[in-house]
Design a protein that fits this description.
single chain, alpha+beta, 4-stranded mixed β-sheet, 1 helix, 9 strands, about 55% strand, disordered N terminus
């Protein structure tokens, strides 16, 4: 009986770190800017949106941006870690590192992107999304 209790406690304590690390990540935006260019014809706006994301807890490997109206995403760039050079992501499924995907629906547009490497609490990354609407 005592051996079973000790075994149960060991299993419980062995699983505790795994349960704690399975928490959702938390982030805050240090900045969220948009540079908007409206052509003389006024038919479509060109937008360069820049977000600086600070990871305050957990690990982040993907990001999502949604719009309630249709937009045409032209390209997505990331600056991650100590690198100051923006890296252009490749259109694909958005689940592989350095890729993004765009989905259009009656509810609007959703962009999913994958960071080149997972980023932990204390790290920041910058994403620039160029699109027209």
């Amino acid at each position: 009986m005592k051996a079973r209790l000790i075994a149960a406690l060991l299993v419980l304590f062995a699983l505790t770190p795994a349960l704690a690390s399975a928490q959702s990540p938390s982030v805050q935006w240090n900045r969220w800017d948009a540079q908007i260019t409206v052509p003389a014809s006024g038919d479509q706006m060109q937008i360069a949106e820049t977000q600086e994301v600070n990871i305050t807890g957990g690990t982040v490997s993907h990001g999502t941006r949604s719009w309630t109206s249709p937009v045409q995403v032209q390209n997505v760039y990331l600056i991650v870690g100590n690198d100051s050079t923006p890296q252009q992501l490749t259109p694909a499924d958005g689940n592989q590192p350095n890729t993004y995907s765009v989905a259009q629906s009656s509810d609007g547009t959703t962009l999913d992107y994958a960071l080149p490497t997972p980023q932990n609490a204390g790290n920041t990354y910058v994403v620039q999304i160029n699109y027209t609407t």
